[in-house]
Design brief:
Number of helices: 7
Helix content: 40-55%
CATH topology: Rossmann fold
CATH architecture: 3-Layer(aba) Sandwich
CATH superfamily: Flavodoxin domain
Bound molecules: flavin mononucleotide
Shape: globular
Number of domains: 1
Order of helices and strands: EHEHHEHEHEEEEHH
Structural class: alpha/beta
CATH class: Alpha Beta
Largest sheet: 6 strands, parallel
Distance between the termini: 22 Å
């Protein structure tokens, strides 16, 4: 079983990577399998530059083909999203728009972080994930900074630990959705 946790913030100094490192083992614990972190900064997709609509599946750019090979084998994807000015990141939208069929039926979930747990960004992201036919699990995990964000920065471990039960439960739900998938496809 392959679960990929997609880090969608790409700025050079970001909390997203440290948060991912703390979140991945908790989801893995619930799911009973490893969770691979995929960092969109490292993926470094250009802004959509395919001549055809990705829905045609005729990719010309090596970057698109490589991104497709990352997403395709995943049984589930979890988008880790901050909130930027009330929305999700441009990198997340670009990463989704660059592919199409790869997302179809993919078990998917969202984990948000921010002052209000990225509560404004997450529903927007879930909407577009549903639009490319991901099987988006209800009940995202919304992690609020609260007292863990100070002038010294974010204390990632304690913040994430506060959502430990929710994150392991999410892992379990992802596992169950993956297990159910062949049945649903056969029906
Ligand atoms: C461009 C930008 C816009 C932001 N807008 C919001 C916002 O709307 N809501 C919020 O809770 N935090 C906002 N913040 C603060 C982020 O929650 C915080 O910087 C977080 O660490 C961003 O994730 P990152 O470090 O992984 O990029 C914003 C930060 C940036 C860089």
């Amino acid at each position: 079983m392959a679960i990929k946790l997609i880090v969608t913030s790409t700025r050079p100094r970001r909390n997203g990577v440290d948060i991912a490192a703390a979140v991945a083992p908790l989801i893995a614990q619930g799911a009973g399998c490893d969770v691979e972190i995929v960092d969109l900064r490292e993926v470094a997709l250009p802004f959509l530059d395919e001549p055809e609509m990705p829905a045609m599946g005729k990719y010309t750019e090596p970057s698109t083909q490589a991104w497709s090979e990352v997403v395709k084998p995943a049984d589930a994807v979890v988008f880790l999203t901050p909130e930027y000015n009330g929305g999700y990141t441009a990198a997340a939208k670009n990463a989704i728009d660059t592919l199409f069929h790869e997302w179809d039926g993919k078990v998917a979930a969202v984990v948000g972080y921010g002052w209000g747990g990225a509560g404004r960004a997450v529903p927007q992201l879930e909407t577009i994930m549903g639009n490319v036919k991901m099987n988006v699990l209800e009940g995202p995990v919304l992690m609020s900074f609260g007292e863990h964000m100070t002038d010294e920065g974010l204390s990632v471990e304690p913040m994430v630990a506060g959502y430990g039960a929710e994150l392991t439960a999410l892992g379990k739900r992802i596992n169950q959705a993956i297990e159910l998938r062949p049945e649903m496809q056969a029906a």
